Amino acid sequence: MLACSPKLDWRTVKNESLGYAAFFPGKPQLIDRSLSYQENKLKQSLEFVKADDDIFAVMTTEIPVALANQVSAIEQLLKSVLLQQTLSPNQSTPSEFNRVKESSSKIGAIGQQKQASQDYFLDLPQAKRVMRIRWLIRPMADGGLYLYQVSVVRAQTPSNPMPSLEQENINIFFDEFRPN
Which neighbouring-strand residues pair with 103? Predict the structure, then answer.
């Protein structure tokens, strides 16, 4: 089983302050930043591990109560920013998110509930990489929301990149992500 691979040092990381637990293939790093949105600052945290040529990441955007009803617009903004970053200098139209599959994520402290979600594939031609992404929304204790972006970036294969984004170690990372 890949989870026991000596190359990958799988560990459960509980991030209580951001309301989730994730199964990373190594010790993650954490970067915080803020994002401007309608004269407000949204706190973003990126927890990630680079394992071989793959990057396993969880980005959390904290949406305050005052903006909770705008979560769809904020999610679209984040998607647009990500798509704009995929543009190469001679490209006028960004890549598109291609739905990979319907999925569900277990949520709650012991994973007692399931939240429907969808996994997307994004081609990053300039970097010669591909990305699998899942977005999840979870309420915060104060009435705000967490918007999670769970993703894996990997080197692009010459033919069909989809199978490389369905490998066991990637599926484990997505399946074991747990918003509390």
Answer: 117
Whole-angstrom Cα distance, residue 123 to residue 55?
Answer: 15
Q: Could you say which DSSP state residue 28 is in? A: P
Q: Where are the domains positioned within the chain?
A: 2-82+120-168
pTM for the whole structure? 0.83
How does pLDDT run across 47-86, given as a tens digit for each residue? 999 998 899 999 999 999 999 999 999 999 888 888 777 6
Residue the block writes with tokens 């009435």: 143
Computed over its alpha carbons, how large is the radius of gyration of the chain?
16
Rounded CA-CA distance 170/152 in Å is 7
User: For residue 130, which amino acid is it?
Assistant: V
Q: How far apart are CA 132 and CA 118, in angstroms?
A: 10
Q: Are 22 and 106 in contact (CB under 8 A)?
A: no
